Amino acid sequence: MLPGAWLHWACLLLLLRLAQPCPVGCDCFVQEVFCSIEELAAIPRDIPPHATNIVFIETSFTMVEARAFSGSPNLTKVVLLNTRLSHWEPDAFGGLPSLQDLEITGSAFPNISANIFSNLTSLSKFTLNFNMLEALPEGLFHHMGALASLQLQGNRLQTLPGRLFQPLKHLKTLNLAQNLLAQLPEQLFDPLGSLQTLRLSNNALTSLPQRVFAKLGSLQELFLDGNSISDLPPEVFSQLFCLEKLWLQRNAIVHLPPSVFSSLGNLTFLNLQGNALWELPADLFAQTKGLISLSLSHNRLETVSEGTFANLSNLSSLTLSHNAITQLPAGIFRDLKELIKLYLGSNNLTALHPDVFQNLSKLELLSLSRNLLTTLPEGIFDTNYNLFNLALHGNPWQCDCHLAYLFNWLHEYNDRLFNIQTYCAGPAYLKGQVVPALKEEQLVCPVTRDLLGFQAPRMEDREPGSSWDLIAEERAAWSRCTYSNPEGTVVLACDKAQCRWLSVQLSPRQGSQGLMYNATQEWKLKSSCGYMKVIVSIEAQAGEP
Ligand SMILES: *[C@@H]1O[C@H](CO)[C@@H](O)[C@H](O)[C@H]1NC(C)=O
Ligand SMILES: *[C@@H]1O[C@H](CO)[C@@H](O)[C@H](O)[C@H]1NC(C)=O
Ligand SMILES: *[C@@H]1O[C@H](CO)[C@@H](O)[C@H](O)[C@H]1NC(C)=O
Ligand SMILES: *[C@@H]1O[C@H](CO)[C@@H](O)[C@H](O)[C@H]1NC(C)=O
Ligand SMILES: *[C@@H]1O[C@H](CO)[C@@H](O)[C@H](O)[C@H]1NC(C)=O
Ligand SMILES: *[C@@H]1O[C@H](CO)[C@@H](O)[C@H](O)[C@H]1NC(C)=O
Ligand SMILES: *[C@@H]1O[C@H](CO)[C@@H](O)[C@H](O)[C@H]1NC(C)=O
Ligand SMILES: *[C@@H]1O[C@H](CO)[C@@H](O)[C@H](O)[C@H]1NC(C)=O
Ligand SMILES: *[C@@H]1O[C@H](CO)[C@@H](O)[C@H](O)[C@H]1NC(C)=O
């Protein structure tokens, strides 16, 4: 930069400074003041009187004197972030009739006395996050009737005075997350008739008083996750008619009272992940008809009964992964017309009913990974027109004829497999092969059941007097899978363990020839179990008639 230009900027800065005095170590803007120099040893006395916002970041002063800010009576916002504050004189924030937003975050003081904040009648947002507070005095919010948001996250509060929140009739948001609260006084929240969001996440609650939320008729969001709650009182949510979202994940809930959610007609989001539930009461969700998202993953569920989700016609995401579910009733998802995401991974499912996903026409994502599935029934995805994200890995897929439906489905929609690493666990010669990379001809059932039953070849097609030929009844008794060529002249019948008989019609039809001496012929035979190749060699040996 040219020296002239530099001089010009220096003069301009000087003019600005002169025009607008600013405390040493701070930056002053039109009405905002930022003080972030560590050496700042006290609240400056020369804060511009017209300032409305002041922010201190990582400053080293430890005390706020009485009425320290009263020279700037128009301050509406005071923020002290990561400072070394630990002492306060009474009425420290006195003389600030317009103060609306006061934040003291990241300092290390274990207690605070009520008279520091007296007279803050216009305060609407009060934040005391991450300060190591161990207790709060009962009168702390005495004149704060205008408070709408109170943040007390990340302290070391173990209990709270029962009448602490008495003045806070207009409070809309209360955050008590990440403290050490082990119990709550039953009347603690009674004054908070306007409360919309209550955060109690990550405390040490083991139980809740029956009527602790009884007066919170306006509550919309309730966070109780990350505690150690093992039992919920049956009526604990019974007055929360406006509740829309409820977080109960990462607790120790073993069983839920059947009607615990029955007043929650406005509930759209419910998270029960990471509890110890092994059973769900039949009508648990009968009244929460507006649920959109429901998570039950990481529990101990072994079964889920047919009608459990029957009324959830708006449900769009259902998570049942990481349980021990062994089977699902055919109609369990029948009414979930809006379902888009269904997570069933990491369970003990061994088989699925062909109709279990029927009518889930909006389903886009389905996870079946890490179960014990060997195959999927024919037609299982026929009505899932929008399914494009399917997770199948981590199952012991049996790559035989029964997998043909899935195989063809995957090939028809070859971009839809979420994790291509989906391997065959059997039969032995296909073990470890990637399912979608197989050829359809490899999916054969050499020794499995023929569900369609045995169909005996017509008598006139059989070679008369063939030494392999057995009486029809005997064949029917143990033949389970019958392979033949399209002409029906070569028929092979197998049961589970081995192939029991072969019929080859050698007497030529018109226009074809029989087998010559010393000749080999092969046929590709098909059955409902799959394909089989049969090779017949005839060798005439010298000396025999
Ligand atoms: C405070 O604000 C009022 C109204 O906006 C104004 O009249 C007054 O001059 C301001 N006071 C200071 C010290 O700037
Ligand atoms: C409240 O403010 C008034 C006047 O501004 C003052 O006289 C009084 O000391 C303050 N109250 C407390 C408890 O500091
Ligand atoms: C607050 O904590 C300080 C130590 O940080 C202690 O000296 C003081 O007695 C405590 N005050 C109250 C009221 O507990
Ligand atoms: C849903 O909440 C509204 C208030 O927001 C309330 O009037 C209504 O009764 C609630 N609906 C149900 C089904 O509880
Ligand atoms: C389902 O969602 C629709 C659209 O958002 C809404 O109008 C309807 O009330 C919801 N149904 C229930 C039972 O909440
Ligand atoms: C709720 O589900 C139950 C059980 O399936 C059923 O009897 C009832 O009719 C359903 N109610 C509504 C409103 O869908
Ligand atoms: C699927 O929907 C059709 C038509 O809406 C209905 O007749 C059938 O019973 C449904 N199937 C299941 C399993 O709910
Ligand atoms: C589920 O499967 C796991 C491992 O495959 C097994 O340890 C567990 O006992 C099974 N649980 C049930 C209920 O079958
Ligand atoms: C068939 O092969 C055997 C030995 O491989 C031979 O001895 C015999 O002569 C052959 N017969 C005819 C008809 O070719």
From TrEMBL:
Keywords, sorted A to Z: Carboxypeptidase, Glycoprotein, Hydrolase, Leucine-rich repeat, Protease, Repeat, Secreted, Signal
Subcellular location: Secreted
The organism's taxonomic lineage, starting at the top: Eukaryota, Metazoa, Chordata, Craniata, Vertebrata
Classification via Pfam families: LRR_5, LRR_8
Gene Ontology CC terms, in alphabetical order: extracellular region; plasma membrane
Domain LRRNT: residue ranges: 21-53
Functional note: The 83 kDa subunit binds and stabilizes the catalytic subunit at 37 degrees Celsius and keeps it in circulation. Under some circumstances it may be an allosteric modifier of the catalytic subunit.
Entry protein name: Carboxypeptidase N subunit 2
Annotated signal sequence range: 1-21
Molecular-function GO terms, alphabetical: carboxypeptidase activity
DNA-binding among keywords: no
All residue ranges annotated as the LRRCT domain in the record: 395-446
Superkingdom per UniProt: Eukaryota
InterPro entries: Cys-rich_flank_reg_C (IPR000483), Leu-rich_rpt (IPR001611), Leu-rich_rpt_typical-subtyp (IPR003591), LRR_5 (IPR026906), LRR_dom_sf (IPR032675), LRR_TM_domain-containing (IPR050541), LRRNT (IPR000372)
Keyword Protease: yes
Quaternary assembly: Tetramer of two catalytic chains and two glycosylated inactive chains.
